[in-house]
Inverse folding.
């Protein structure tokens, strides 16, 4: 399959992730859509690594996965702490800084 | 070649369909399960892209650890229900779709910057692709194998590897600090 097919698939996956972040109000689902965007970038890395016959793309995917795991842990801890104080996972309710 | 094409289209349909289900579902648990489907479809794509190690790591780390974390938190907060429609997102959803279409056009306009080699499907000389390797002939040190990833990871990217371990340590300390009863 040509690289352009994988580029298109990665772009579509990324766009679905962006749509999810904009449209959903549940904090956890927004976080899941961020993971979709990260996976779109991973797919592009792996496809480019095969296209260029270099291992660097796959090694970078390894790093992206590690950082994504750390980010998910910290992000979910923040969501839990936020839930403890505001008792909601609705981002529209978390508006204490609003004028 | 034909096997690779069939696998690509099947996996692409699974990946995009599951991603749409993540965005559309009202219950967070259904979104989480659809996300697992996306990750498994991506793992199949990675395997067909001669990245077997990355495919397995994808299943282990994403589907096996990150999604478990998500499901734990959804169950812990007992929030597996649609959010009450207190403040309806009336005009914001079409605006979001419009903005995503604008982003799609922006991405598409850069398509012509791809090199011409990105559109050809010429079979590449080199190690046999994973899907068509004859049985019994293992491509042990070939492209995408564990040895190849390890070689590159521990020579060219050794510093990044060590820094990643510090990132994980910081994340662990941060999570423990955030989970305390009294911050």
């Amino acid at each position: 399959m040509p690289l352009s097919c994988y580029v298109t698939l990665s772009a579509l996956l990324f766009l679905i992730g962006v749509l999810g972040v904009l449209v959903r109000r549940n904090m956890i689902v927004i976080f899941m859509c961020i993971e979709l965007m990260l996976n779109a970038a991973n797919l592009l890395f792996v496809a480019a690594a095969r296209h260029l016959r270099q291992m660097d793309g796959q090694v970078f995917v390894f790093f992206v996965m590690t950082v994504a795991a750390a980010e998910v842990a910290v992000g979910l801890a923040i969501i839990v702490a936020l839930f403890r104080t505001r008792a909601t996972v609705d981002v529209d309710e978390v508006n204490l800084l609003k004028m | 070649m034909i096997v690779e094409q069939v696998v690509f289209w099947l996996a692409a349909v699974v990946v995009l369909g599951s991603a749409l289900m993540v965005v559309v579902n009202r219950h967070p648990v259904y979104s989480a399960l659809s996300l697992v489907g996306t990750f498994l479809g991506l793992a199949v794509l990675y395997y067909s892209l001669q990245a077997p190690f990355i495919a397995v790591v994808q299943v282990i780390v994403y589907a096996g650890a990150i999604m478990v974390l998500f499901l734990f938190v959804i169950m812990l907060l007992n929030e597996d229900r649609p959010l009450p429609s207190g403040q309806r997102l009336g005009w914001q959803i079409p605006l979001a779709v419009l903005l995503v279409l604008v982003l799609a056009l922006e991405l598409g306009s850069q398509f012509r910057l791809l090199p011409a080699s990105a559109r050809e499907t010429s079979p590449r000389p080199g190690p046999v692709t994973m899907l068509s390797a004859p049985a019994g002939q293992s491509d042990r040190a070939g492209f995408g194998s564990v040895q190849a990833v390890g070689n590159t990871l521990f020579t060219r990217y050794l510093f990044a590897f060590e820094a990643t371990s510090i990132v994980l340590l910081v994340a662990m300390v941060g999570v423990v600090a955030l989970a305390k009863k009294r911050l």
Q: What stands out?
A: The first helix of chain B runs from residue 2 to 24.
